[in-house]
Write a structure and sequence with these properties.
By secondary structure, the chain is of the alpha+beta class. Helices cover 27% and strands 13% of the residues. It is globular and about 100 Å long.
């Protein structure tokens, strides 16, 4: 029987060049990644505050957050009101009902007759989206929870 002709060495080398090289097997597969540290100037998505710069308590809470070396995401909720779903999620996280989050002083609360029990939860949330001044402040969300930080010391529960 005759043998098939041998391939020349140059053809064998050409085939090897076209094959993808295997990665070294001595590298650990689950190498922990070093997370970059936040620079003090960047906002941290881990802390969000619904803020009114005209409110002394809101300014105090913001100052307390920054004193911890955290720059929160600041939502000036009077300029960019939260949607109904966001309000409902915050209420659930705080274990509160919409009526508990209503601000009465210097708001359209009396004008709208919100003392009347005829207003259900869904209706009150809807009114908060239309009239964000009705939302008591400041509301702060962190990884540890969400709180209406009134008094300001309530912030300590979630920082």
């Amino acid at each position: 029987m005759s043998r098939p002709p041998r391939k020349s060495k140059s053809k064998a080398k050409a085939k090897l060049k076209n094959k993808p090289k295997n990665k070294p097997k001595n590298k650990p597969k689950n190498k922990p990644k070093n997370k970059p540290k936040r620079s003090p100037g960047k906002a941290s998505a881990s802390v969000v505050i619904w803020h009114n710069p005209n409110c002394g308590t809101s300014r105090k809470v913001l100052e307390m957050i920054r004193a911890r070396g955290v720059e929160p995401v600041i939502v000036e909720y009077l300029k960019t009101p939260p949607g109904a779903a966001e309000i409902e999620a915050s209420l659930k996280a705080m274990g509160m009902r919409p009526r508990d989050l209503l601000r009465r002083k210097n708001t359209p609360y009396d004008e709208l007759g919100l003392d009347d029990a005829k207003f259900g939860d869904a209706e009150l949330v809807k009114l908060m989206t239309r009239h964000p001044l009705l939302i008591e402040r400041p509301v702060v969300r962190t990884r540890k929870g969400t709180r209406l930080c009134r008094p300001a010391e309530r912030l300590q529960e979630i920082l």
